Amino acid sequence: MSSVQPNEVILSRWYFGGLGSAGAACCTHPLDLIKVHFQTTATNLSATSITAQGRPTMFSTAVRLVKSDGILALYNGLTASLLRQLTYSTTRFGIYEVAKQQISPDGSTIPFYQRIILAGISGAVGGLVGTPADMINVRMQNDMKLLAKDRRNYKNAIDGLIKVYRFEGAKSLFNGASMATARAIMMSIGQLSMYDQFKYLLLEYLPMIFEDNVTTHLTASTLTGAVATSLTQPLDVLKTRMMNSAKNQYRSVGHCITELYKESGIFGFFKGYVPAFIRLAPHTILTFVFMEQLRLNFGIHKLTEGK
């Protein structure tokens, strides 16, 4: 890590967030896959045996997957997950960082409401851009739950995109786009703006304990993970069900919400909350830790106004 002068700041490059998210995805993909299986259980009961074993848990789901398909099954759909991060996360982090640095070129803190607005806009664009890869990701993760005759058997993310375009049409690549975009807005507000806010509060009000290092990054990102999970879980459940649905299964987002409520009540919108938090918290932590390490070691050095 290069030395930093008292009146110098190190700014992130626009693509560091995408790289950090991709690195985090490599570590947390098995947890994401298990989360998807939790959320889609209700729509695929005929393809599973877990109902005969009582209410599933995250551990039992993992054991069942490994027993039926081997340890590599936990990384099913990894290529789609990486493609999603390199589209969705690179876009939202990139827009957020560029806009933030345009508002404050010297890296000084901008008002919280501005960060929320920037994060929301960044998330909306990123969610739309990342929808095709996100849909393929959900399908590849859920494929092993289906009967052999019903499996899509995508070889990788690109193969999945080509097959969807060829057999279902370009419009199908954006199945669940409205929910993915809404979720991305909430996720970006919960992650980008809240991480900056928690980091600012730690550095500003507890300077005797925290400085710009891994301890601060871990603390701020852990708090951020809790906020982001709570904001996004209902939208995540709806997004997953719509992306994994059969053609014409849901007429609209409202229809999906109604059907889910009929099936599971209000708690159905938080199905898989614990595995979602267990997956999202580490992913959030790793994303920001990786991104901060990239910033500190390869970021842009700028002088602030003299003190």
UniProtKB/TrEMBL annotation:
Pfam families: Mito_carr. InterPro entries: MCP_dom_sf, MCP_transmembrane, Mito_Metabolite_Transporter. It is found in: Membrane. It is a multi-pass membrane protein. It comes from the Eukaryota. Keywords: Membrane, Repeat, Transmembrane, Transmembrane helix, Transport. GO terms for cellular component: membrane. Belongs to the mitochondrial carrier (TC 2.A.29) family. This is Mitochondrial dicarboxylate carrier-like. It comes from Dermatophagoides pteronyssinus (European house dust mite).
